[in-house]
Specification:
There is one protein chain. By secondary structure, the protein is mainly alpha-helical. It has one domain. It is built from seven helices and two strands; from the N terminus they run αααββαααα. A two-stranded antiparallel ribbon has the order 1-2. 18% of the residues are buried.
């Protein structure tokens, strides 16, 4: 049975331990990692701008009438994993934490049928957007700079 020198050696693959692999492949991995990190930064920036846009459009309060709870979160009727619609102005509605994901009486995630009926009655334009686009397959935007610029223009137009 082999004796391990350290826990690092035990958990590290053989190729990495012995330093095998070319410098070119290491540089390529570093460049692709940098590109992935840059895209993640752009996604976070677009999320921040979309949040500002939704809160500016609907106010910084829960959209459920009579609710004064804070903090307010942004709910995506078409899930935020669908990057093609993630930053669309009609794909967001401000909700308090309870109405977004915690309340068993009425919340977007725990009682979706009640929530969709409420959405249809209170926000027909958001419901229409959801109902029209919920089953469409849309590619994620390739140029995040364009998405960010569009969100910035929308925010400026509202100011």
């Amino acid at each position: 049975m082999k004796q391990w020198n350290s826990t690092l050696e035990r958990r590290t693959p053989l190729k990495a331990r012995k330093g095998l692999g070319s410098k070119a492949s290491t540089r390529a991995k570093t460049a692709s990692q940098a590109a992935a990190q840059a895209r993640q930064r752009q996604i976070r920036e677009a999320d921040s701008l979309h949040r500002q846009l939704i809160f500016t459009l609907c106010g910084h309060a829960c959209s459920v009438k009579g609710c004064k709870c804070h903090p307010v979160e942004r709910h995506h009727p078409i899930g935020c994993a669908t990057l093609g619609y993630r930053w669309h102005p009609d794909n967001g509605i401000p909700l308090c934490v309870d109405h977004h994901r915690l309340s068993s009486q009425f919340s977007a995630h725990l009682t979706p049928v009640k929530f969709k009926k409420w959405l249809k009655a209170e926000y027909p334009e958001v419901y229409a957007f959801w109902n029209t686009n919920r089953n469409k397959i849309v590619k994620a935007p390739r140029d995040m700079k364009r998405v960010i610029a569009k969100l910035e223009r929308q925010l400026e137009a509202m100011a």
